[in-house]
Fold this protein.
Amino acid sequence: MIPELGQFALALALAVAVVQAVLPIAGAAKGNAAWMAVARPAAQAQALLVAFAFGCLTYAFVANDFSVAYVAAHSNSALPLHYRIAGVWGGHEGSLLLWALMLGVWMTAASVFSSHLPDEMTARVLGVMGVVSAGFLAFMLFTSNPFDRQFPPAMDGRDLNPLLQDPGMVLHPPMLYMGYVGFSVAYAFAVSALLSGKLDAAWARWSRPWTTVAWMFLTVGIALGSGWAYYELGWGGWWFWDPVENASFMPWLVGTTLIHSLAVTEKRGGFRSWTVLLAIVAFGLSLLGTFLVRSGVLTSVHAFAVDPRRGVFILGIFTVLIGGALVLYAWRTSRIGLGGDFAPVSRESFLLANNVLLAAAAGAVFLGTLYPLVIDALGAGKLSVGPPYFETVFVPLMAPALFLMGVGPLARWKHASIPELAVLLRWALAVSLAVGLLLPLAFGRWHALTGFALALAIWIVAAALISLKKRPRGSRAHLGMVVAHIGVAVFVVGVTLVKTYESDKDLRMKPGDSVFLAGYVFRLDEVGNVKGPNYVAARARISVTKSGEPVTVMYPEKRLYVVQNMPMTEAAIDPGPTRDLYVSLGDPFEDGAWLVKVQHKPFVDWIWGGCLIMALGGLLAASDRRYRVPLPLRARAQVA
Amino acid sequence: MNRALWTLGAFVALLALLAVGLRLNPREVPSPLIGKPAPPFELPLLTEPDKRFSHKDMLGKVWIMNVWASWCPPCLVEHPVVTQLARAGMAPVVGLNYKDARDEALPWLKRNGDPYHLIVADVDGRIGIDYGVYGVPETYVIDRQGIIRYKHIGPLTADVVETKVEPLLRELNGG
């Protein structure tokens, strides 16, 4: 009964979404206030209906209702309660429902925090979001219904994929989807502005906080996914340039570009046409990511059950939403007009360079991700594009962007002077060069690229501090920018140091054996058996000492999840601000020895720390009070 | 205007690519062995180690070679499908027991049933290397002239049998 209620709520939500997509947009075109007024209640009703459906599916999981096919495929009665709840989004159908729920959250937020917008704008924005929502609800109901029953009901479920039974995995999809779906708000603002024909500074100001918040969620989501891969996949990698990772990284890059381009559009009225295009592309890439993950056109570690029919449907949604927006863009772009002009050395031109570099980086990732598909489609063979390509193209594009990150925020709008910047930044340059030259020596081995990257990181931090000193009473938006830039520097330090100085050893160890790595002694004390709720495991006890002093005791496990008969390496990690110790247990040998991998990863946690600082910066920037107060009179006059 | 049209053009090209991509299967890795003679081998039978079997024994027959092992969970997954394929009787299914121990393989067969025409034991995996085995289980269809006509990597599914293996067997048996 409960699943049927959920399905009914979804069908109702689709009906509401269609109304929300049609009436407010038509009302805004015709100037019919009653039609426009439908937007807010429709958006909120729709969100409630989807939330109710989500609750029904959660109930089916908690109550172990294995007559629901989706529950039977992704849960098991032995699965602990918190993973049964996380199992709701552990597969294709449920994760789509989560997607729809997130869209509902964003729509509700947009309907609540839009009181300072003109009514036409609110109606159009919510209407466009209604179109998006209708597409995804129809997709779910027609191809991927999470409430489908099966007969006869399963005796027990097939269990959640053991890889997903992890706290990081519980949070990763909701954060990621908040980011993906959040770009639909920026998209809706862009399409609404195109519909109205008014692409002005006010439009950019409204879009900014939404874009920043979506970007913040996406940052956290990607960081969680990367952190999860690091400790759960059991061999200490944290980014693989896998197609699905790239699918989340491309919208992030374009979203970052959009944030910077919106700044120019709001402050100087420039880059308007480009900003609109970026808003459309950022959401387009989110949709493309959904398509790549769920249609099975590319091979990836994220294997969702694939079905070509689904691919066709998502391709249809993609065509309508992005194709429609691009046609509108082509039609309106001649009317957009140019913003204020600027000198070759000015904050505008620095931001332009930032945009070009970030967009080129996104393009490079896009090319590398889709290239195998192009070659396959041409019938020219099968190939895969791996980390060497991405690292080779990515680093040279990012290095100048990191350099500009120091200069840009200090440059004046419209016209900046190089001598003035040089005076401001001379100490930053000197300190960063000194650190770049000397710091690698402290790690024992000098390496040109490492020194260069560290110098860039210090450069960013020093320049950020200078800009804080120059504007001690700056806005929260300014503070957020500074914090986010420092986050990038922290991230760069983490990546650089772990890439250069990490070390590892693979060896066979018998109880009593010791191994020495990076100053630490790892001693395998014993290997015992433990039993978990839905797995059995061999667990090793490894004590770690440094110059005779005990540091920690680590318990890596080799688990066998019994329902799916799936072995899993559960690494033991001793985290620290300057290094992680990482031990994983391989296969046993016949004589009682085990294959053991020990790793020393200096500063690896700075990678995720940097991402969290970036996200914190985003949060600060989005909470700036000028986004919450109604427009000042002067800006209102511009809108009118 | 021009720039916007470029954007639209790029979008249409992307759509075309994705639409074509939907019809392709990225997991299908073409084997260089297809259309080539099956690599020769002569191995002892798993059940009766003193008897030997050679690829030449099958010349003139269309047959299927299924690479499996008792240590391989996906082999257990595909076992019912292999059993059904063997029962259908369209072609004899020869098992290649790959890098396995006899005293583990035999109980495995006892537990799960033995659908095979016969099974050869490739204890050190030497023949597996010749055939380019990289993901057990694997399944090969070999024609009357001893040419490999089809290779499937990973567990056989009912769908693959229906859409790929059976039509091919019908064609080979008919011709």
User: Anything to note?
Assistant: The radius of gyration of chain A is 26 Å. Residues 194 and 330 of chain A are 10 Å apart (CA to CA). The first strand of chain A starts at residue 503 and ends at 509. Residues 201-232 of chain A form the longest helix (32 residues).
